Amino acid sequence: MISTEYVVSEQPFTVRRTVKWGQCDPAGVVYTVVFAEYVISTAELFYGCLFGQGPQQAKDKYQFGTPTRGLTFDFRKSLRPDQQFDTEVRVGRIGTSTYQLLMHARDMEGDTVFTACLTPICIVRGQRESIPIPEYFKEKLKAHQTSDAP
Predict the structure, then answer these.
(1) Range of the domain at 69
(2) Residue 63 CB: number of other CB atoms within 10 A?
(3) Whole-model pTM?
(4) Per the record, a Pfam family (predicted)?
(5) What is the count of structural domains for the chain?
(6) CATH code for the domain of 106
(7) What pLDDT was estimated at residue 148?
(8) Residue 150 included in any domain
(9) pLDDT averaged over consecutive 10-residue blocks of the chain (150 residues)?
């Protein structure tokens, strides 16, 4: 069986993905909305690495959630079916309740495909009330923080 996404490095945290045929339009180019799925899926794998267990199990255990407050993209190249690319994750600015996950996707030739900034906000699990980033989670984020965070 062939895996279409997997972690290739934990430092820097990097996910390799293969584009599936069903993620593309009739012209054979990845649909724009699929890039958001790539980013969210990569973030979930990143959280799994940070917690050492399933991210939703960990968030249940510690009673907090991380819904998306913001998501921005800069697209540089299109992707086609069966094409592989790597997405590297770095932590940008860490605020009181929010933090940035900076993602840089490159094709196998090393060319930038896209960059993205995912800004989650910490909330009380099951409520829509922001909370400060839990200290143990903040420390894990700092281990992946980039020195050139915006």
Answers:
(1) 5-142
(2) 12
(3) 0.93
(4) 4HBT_2
(5) 1
(6) 3.10.129.10
(7) 64
(8) no
(9) 89 97 94 96 96 90 93 96 97 97 98 98 91 94 79
